[in-house]
Each structure stands twice: as structure tokens, then as C-alpha cells.
Amino acid sequence: MKTVEDIMTGNPLYVDGDSTVMLAMNRMRKHSIAQIAVTADGKYAGMLSYRELVRRKSIHLNSKARNYILNTPSLKKTDSINDAVNLMNDTGMGAIPVIEKEKIVGIVSATDVIKNIGEFPEFNEFHAVNLMVDPYSVNTDDSLEHSLEIIRQHESDLIAVVDGNSKINGMIKLENIADYEMKGRENETGTQNSGGKERADITVRSVMEDPIFSYEDEGIGTLCDKLVNNHMHSIPVCDSGMKLTGVVDMDSIISLIGKTEEREGMLINVSGLSAGDIDLYETIYAMADKFIVRFSRITNLKGATFKIHVVKHHNEQSRVKYSIRTKLFARKMNMSVSDSGWNFGKVLSQIFDTYEKRAKK
Q1: % pLDDT > 70, the chain
Q2: Helix, strand and coil percent figures for the chain, each rounded to 5
Q3: pTM of the predicted protein model
Q4: Domains of the chain, CATH where assigned
Q5: Of 132, 198, 263, 292, whose CB count within 10 A is highest?
Q6: Which helix (H) or strand (E) holds 147?
Q7: Cα–Cα distances in Å, from 74 out to 20, 256, 268, 309?
Q8: Nearest-CA neighbor of 108 among 81, 86, 69, 90?
């Protein structure tokens, strides 16, 4: 089994913490990377995520990069690929820095891992249809604003564009939206990168690219090659008639090949909430604990990863509507369920009930 040093990207790009967000984003776009390291006084300080920046409602492009960094765990060169994969699964991070004497010497990303999918021959029999979760898409006449909202809800880097028969005929990447947003702004000072009004006036048709997709029967090796070669974090899946049937992302693959020792229990990964949402976290973990017991009895499942992403929508009366998207990954089972409503606990309960009903079938 290879070590972290064998697969990492050495001499990684970085920006100083006092650099602007605009500089960091331009560097990530130029080099087709999803995250960039941030340093302070020559030492590693944290990571800046392109996807997290673009998902924000507004960005002050000339603010300091250090204001947006994510704290991350780290790896050593001598750690194994399994160590890297398990750390990604445990933290939900798509890239982990490799640190020596407080300085970053490399980065191991999900892309670096799936480039080496051959290190995991036990998964050769898996195909796109085994890995995909429920599809999500937009139509050609939908607005760019609507597309970005769907991308945010699904924590994705792109969304498929379909016609009236659900056949794929294009795709919208986060980069497409970001490029449109930043065009004409890069020489401005103190600009708020909000763009909500402009996005509402632009249709998907005018910005979409030709689609890149996988067929249901394509093997995991071909699937990984497409993700890597096209700098994509997720890829639409179609049947033989090009009808959209699912989506596979790197998280699904990383979750599959991680925990090869089949550690018992279900790993719960929550995203979208802030540190102040303590009551929602408590609700999730209390309800999830009971759900895991029931679900394990039905499926005889020993180990799995359960991802929960929450989006809060505020209306004019300051009420909050919750959109909750979940994914369950296990060796022999991949499922996704989404729901929304005004009562957080009720929405979550409905999601857990749906999983149990599907498992009983």
C-alpha cells in the first residue's frame, strides 16, 4: 500500500493570509484546483475552499484570505493512503495538508486518492449504478440564480441540464457561475460579489457547457478517470438512452474505499450549520442515534457513513424553512433522501422514515 508521500501533490500552491480573496480565487481557477493553502509568517494557517467561497451569498473580493480559512487536520508523509481516506471521511474535508515542522509540504486531495483507485482492487466490480445517488438537475430556461441554489443545496460543484424528457444536454459548473459573476469586477475596489439580481436575469442556456457524464454500466476505474481528467468533483450518470438517472461524486467513492477494516457503527457528518445551531445539532444526534439502531436491525448493516446537509431559508416574517439533504454510504448500499419543511425535527423524522421504508423493500 502506498504512503501519503507517494500520492500527495508536492510543492502545493498557497497564498499569504494577507492576500485578497480575489487573488486566491483567481489562482484556484487558473490551476483548476478546489482549495488552496493559506500561510502566516511562512507557517501553515488553514485552507481556503473555492466551493465554500462561491456558495456564499456575498463575498468582499478585496478582503483578506485569512478571514475565510478553514481549520484542518494534517497528515505526515509516512501515513498510508488509508489514513488519508479515513481522515477525509471523519472530517468531511476534500483535501488534507501534509505538514512538516509547521510548514506545508504537500496536499492529499480526494482527486489524489481516486487517481490511485488501482490500490483498491477489491472495488473493481463496482459500476456507476452501484455508486450513484438520486439525480438533481435544472432545465435550459431556468435562471442562473436557481441553478446556484440547487448546487448549494446539494453541496455539489455542478448540476446537469436536462430537457423535458429528462435527457441530459448540458451542465453548469460553479466555475461557470463564478466566471460570470467576476467578469468586469476584477479591477473594481470593495465590490460585493452578490449578483443575485443579475443571476435571476440570466438563463442556464446562455452559460451551460456540453455535458460530461458516465453511463450506468461504466466501471469505477473509468468513472474515476473522467472525474480526474475533467477536474470534476461530481458527475451525472445516464442510462443507455442518455436519460439522467443519478449522480456520483468523489465523496461517494472516498466513503466506499474508506474504513476497509469495516469499523462498526455509523459515522455522522453534518454540514451547513453554524456553531450557534447547537439545538439543531442536538436534535440531529438524538434522532440519528435512535434511527441507527432501527436501521441496523432492518439491514444488518455494521458500518456506514451518513451525511446530513442543512440549508436554512429565511422569509420576510423571519421564519426559517429547512431543506435537509442526506446520503448514506456503505459497502453494499448507497441511498439519498431529501426533504424540506418549517419544523426541523419533523423533516428529519420524515427522512429517517423514508430510509426505513426503502430498506424494508
Answers
A1: 89
A2: 40, 30, 30
A3: 0.72
A4: 4-109 (3.10.580.10), 134-215+234-248 (3.10.580.10), 262-360 (3.30.160.100)
A5: 132
A6: helix 144-153
A7: 24, 22, 21, 24
A8: 81
